[in-house]
Amino acid sequence: MASEARSGRPLSPKFSETIENNLFMRKVIPSPTRSRNSPKVNEDNIRRSLEEISREIKDIEDFITVTENIIRSERERDRELYARERRRKADEKRGKISDEDRIIINNKENKAPTAIKQSPVLSRKNSQKSPSFKINSYKVKKAKPGSPKFLKSKLYFRNGKIGCADAEQSSTSNIESTHALIKHILKYENEKPLVSLESVEKVLSQEPEEQVGRAIENGHASESNANEKGSLDLPDLVPSPARTNEEGINGNNAKYIDLEFSGSPEVTNEDPQQQARKDSLQNRIIDKTENVEEEMNTQEIENLDNEEQKFVREQVHHLVRRFTARTNKMRSRIEMPPTPSSSSSPSPPPPHQSIEALKIDTLDTKVSTRNIFQADNQSIRTPGKFVCPTFCGGGRNDDVLDPQGKVYIYWLCVVSLSFLYNAWVIPLRSSFPFQTEENQDIWLALDTCADLIYLFDVLFFKHRVMYLFEGFWVKDRKLTRKNYMRKLQFKLDIISMIPLDLLYLKYGRQAVYFRFPRLLKIQTFWEVFKLIDRVMASPHFVRVAKTMTYMLYMIHLTACAYYAYSAYQGLGTNRWVFSGKGHPYVRCFAFATKTATSIGKNPKPEKEGELVFMTSAWLMGVFVFALLIGQIRDIISTATRTQSEYRQLEDETLEYMRRQNLPINLQRRVKGWFKFTWDQQRTLDESHILDSLPANLKTDIALSVHIQTLSKVQLFADCEDALLRELVLKLRSVTFLAGDYVCRKGEVGKEMYIIKLGQVQVMGGPNNDEVLATLCEGSVFGEISLLAINGAEGNRRTADVRSRGFSNLFVLSKSDLNEAIVYYPNAQAILKKRARSLMRKNAAREREEARRNASREADVVIGNPTRPNTPPKLLKTVIQALPEESPAAMLLTRGSKRNKKRRETLTDTEESKNEDSLRGSKNEMIAQQTKCTVENERRALSPDLLSSIEDELKNQNKLINLTDSEKALIMSTNDPNEHQSSTSNANLPKN
Ligand SMILES: Nc1ncnc2c1ncn2[C@@H]1O[C@@H]2COP(=O)(O)O[C@H]2[C@H]1O
Fold it and tell me: In 405-427, which positions are buried (b, 16+ CB within 10 angstroms) versus exposed (e)?
């Protein structure tokens, strides 16, 4: 917008165009529907429109500033150009131009040919429509690259700068090209005039005034005639013998206005007639140009100032005013009262102040909406005329006090101390003989200090405290003062300062009771406790302290009264009154304490007056102590309520489990859960704590509490903050014990999780005992099944997730997630991307596992053929052949009961023996063969035995050592010969 306005010459039409074209201006003009806002309009919509309006007003403000700057700078430039031009023309007229200057002017003239082009006003018009004037051109073919001819260029004049048109399109440096081109022009200018006389005549015959008028009206209409591109070009300056002036007009360049600006003294070969003609033409040109130019310039500049500019400015200011008023009205209607905690932030003024703010003179050109809003806060600038204009800063509003600010609270503490001084000392000095002639001055000084504090409080502090009015903090000093003066507190403060002490003059300084009005400052004392209660980390202490102060003060008053009564009756006149022995205050205070608390024995009252005193003291004691004890109980119970609730719940749960006879282990886990949850949160259910707060505050609190965890969640870091705000209140906190499964593979997923504390393990593998990943604080899991990427089947958990130690997780339900995420496509995309990548990873892992299993199975088939389970036929035959009860048969059929391995070895040996015996005396070869066969066949039944024998024989290459009992067993079954042979057989190496 700014650039448009800057480049546009006819500022007024451009201005109005800009305004009309701008969206914000269209919005600014209030439509009937807009102004007729129904009260039922949704608050959100109002808010949004309010924000929009604020933005628009800001835009208008910028718009005004920019356009005003443009107007100013344009005007200055116009004036400057105009003055320069006039000076130059005057010089020219007087023929004072040096030759050198003439050449430069010549070229300058060429930048904006004819008188028309010299008009700054017109130049701007031109530059608006066509940004450049092409004033020269080269049309030489086959020129060297880089040479001015090659450029075939035209000089242009744009925004006060000269340049070479073609250089812009080529990569050549514009400055270099322009320089070269100018040099070239100057070189040939001596040989041939730049502009022919005929061209000049032609232009002049077209009535320049007309051209000017048209140019102004139509924005270069005259130039368009000459050049469709809107440029005013001179004929080719390259000296070409074939080329004549006529060609310049009628040939290719016929559309150009050819002007000859000569008069160069170097052109000496002209005849005097021609010279005279040239001079007269030149003069005509200059005269006409000057007249037109002068007229135009003056008119333009004045018009600029007087009409459009003013109109536009006024219009815009008017709109700004209207919109500011509307905005303030709307704001006053919808703005929520700030919470006490936000009071320190700059707050808007009460509505009536806003209205006053609107009285600001918006006609000031520098006014801005920002200023208006600032003015809202400073609407009243007149100095205060009421209380202490000098000290109180009059009507300034920059030093109001925040009622919850530190300065004010500290000051209230000081005032409270002086109140307490008065409250304790006035009864004390009135009853006890503590004010003597010697210390009177000290008391007087202390009294004066306390009084000064009271005075300062009223003069400098109380009336500056800002207050809430219809939801707005009122910060105006005049209003805060009025507010203070309206209150009862002001009246009490004034009464408490009444200098009744002056009566000392009449009644003497002993009459301290004249200071009793000072006790009316008690409101400040209450206020300070109230404020400290709010700002202290543990308000229970403040409450207990307050109650204790009351109690002690009652006892103090009783002590004073007791002493006064005793003094009245006469010290030590009976057993009840104060005896006068010891420190009077300490004794009387002890008496009063015993009476009030009914602890300890006090002397019995004897007189009626004493009885009345005691009765009232007892009553007060009962009342005050009942109150005190009740309060302290409340305070303590409030402080420990959450803990006792937790204890109660834990006890009930454990009791229930005991009654149900649940396993001890389970009970222990539940106990662990209670302990861990309490340690972590100091409450069992956080969610209900903030129930009573509005949603925005709840969100803020939840964000502050969980920010540490949530800041680690990548999902939220990558997405808008709004998503986090939306979800934070929906997060539920859950605790898992060590080894607990958070979710199981194949379950339907209904929640996703964010790890708040601890670690979880994602389990996988064929037996779900392989840890695929360990996730820690800030990690998100359980989202795959929620997103249901794989259609209906996709809502199943893809892995087991187990808590590694104790872990605390945020749970987000599927519905909550879906509800929120639907508006955040970014987050959706991130979650889906992550889910897909996890799924791909899992799929790849599962494929790999399947492949490994398959290859393992294949190995078994090839490498380990299974042996038949049925005993071989030969063995069956042998067993049948053996006597049933023989140890060999028993061994073969049942095996040993003692040492299996040894027995089997034995059986093996025996069997060999039996085989031998079976074969009898048949040749050894056959027996051996048989034995081997049997052995081979037995291997099927007891591979361990056989292999162990084999191993022993192979590896150690020694005889198998049978135990004696085994040998005996074998020998007892078979004859000695057989035994021999069997032993030898048994000892045979297998191979
Ligand atoms: N290989 C893995 N690495 C990390 N996390 C995983 C992996 N596989 C599954 N998960 C997470 O474990 C979750 C189990 O439940 P979901 O399938 O809903 O979502 C799953 C993922 O968030």
Answer: beebbebbeebbebbbbbbebbb
- Calculate how far, in angstroms, residue 719's C-alpha sits from the geometric centre of ligand 1: 21
State in Å: Cα 806 to ligand 1 middle: 19
Task: Give me the phi and psi of 286, to 5 degrees please.
Answer: -60, -45
Nearest alpha carbon to residue 708 among 800, 631, 810: 810
Cβ–Cβ < 8 Å for 236, 184: no
Cα–Cα distance, 708 to 687 (Å, whole number): 18
Ligand 1, from 748, 762, 846: best to mutate by most atoms within 8 Å of Cβ? 762
Three-state helix/strand/coil letters over 872-913: CHHHHHHHHHCCCCCHHHHHHHCCCCCCHHHHHHHHHHHHHH
**How far, rounded to the nearest angstrom, does the alpha carbon of residue 750 sit from its chain's CA centroid?**
30
Which atom in ligand 1 lies closest to the alpha carbon of residue 839?
8
- Closest ligand 1 atom to residue 785 Cα is 18
CATH 3.30.2090.10 holds for 685-856: no
Length of the chain: 991
The residue whose C-alpha atom lies closest to atom 9 belonging to ligand 1 is: 799
Q: How many CB atoms lie within 10 A of CB 463?
A: 24
Give the pLDDT confidence score for residue 231 in this predicted structure: 35
Task: Choose the residue to mutate in 750, 770, 781, 845 for probing ligand 1, maximizing ligand atoms within 8 Å of C-beta.
Answer: 781
Pocket of ligand 1 (CB under 6 A): 743, 749, 762, 772-773, 781-785, 797-799, 801, 838, 841-842
What pLDDT, on the 0 to 100 scale, is given for residue 850? 85
Q: What are phi and psi of 233, to 5 degrees?
A: -105, 145
Break the chain into its structural domains and give their ranges: 56-93, 406-635, 685-856
How confident is the model at residue 186, as a pLDDT?
A: 59
Half-sphere exposure in the Cβ direction for 743 (13 Å, CA): 23
> What pLDDT is stored for residue 122 in this prediction?
39
Between the alpha carbon of residue 267 and those of residues 192, 243, 258, 260, 783, the distances in Å are 8, 19, 19, 13, 92
| Of 60, 54, 76, nearest in space to 367 by CA | 60
Ligand 1 atom nearest to 752, measured from its CA? 18
List the chain residues with pLDDT less than 70.
1-44, 46-47, 49-50, 60, 63, 67, 94-313, 316, 322-324, 326-398, 600, 684, 686-687, 790-793, 856-879, 881-991
Ligand 1 probe mutation, 768, 770, 801, most atoms within 8 A of CB: 801
Ligand 1, atom 16: nearest CA belongs to which residue? 782
Q: What angle do CA 715, 716, 721 make, to 5 degrees?
A: 150
What are the b/e assignments for 210-226, b being 16+ CB within 10 Å?
ebbebbbeebbebbbeb
Do residues 116 and 212 make contact, with C-beta atoms less than 8 angstroms apart? yes
The C-alpha atoms of residue 369 and residue 334 are separated, in whole angstroms, by 20
User: What burial class does residue 261 get, using C-beta atoms within 10 Å of its C-beta: 0-12 exposed, 13-18 middle, 19+ buried?
Assistant: buried
Rounded to the nearest angstrom, the distance between the alpha carbon of 708 and the centre of ligand 1 is: 23
How far is the C-alpha of 903 from the C-alpha of 896, rounded, in Å? 5
Which pLDDT score, from 0 to 100, does residue 714 have? 79
pLDDT of residue 386: 37
The whole model's pTM is what? 0.41
> Residues 614, 607: contact at Cβ < 8 Å?
no
Q: How far apart are CA 782 and CA 834, in angstroms?
A: 11
Q: Quick one: which atom of ligand 1 is closest to the CA of 841?
A: 1
* Cα of 466 from ligand 1 centre, angstroms: 56
Distance 695 CA to ligand 1 centre (A): 33
- At 126 the pLDDT is 41
Pocket test for ligand 1, best of 755, 838, 842 (most atoms within 8 A of CB): 838
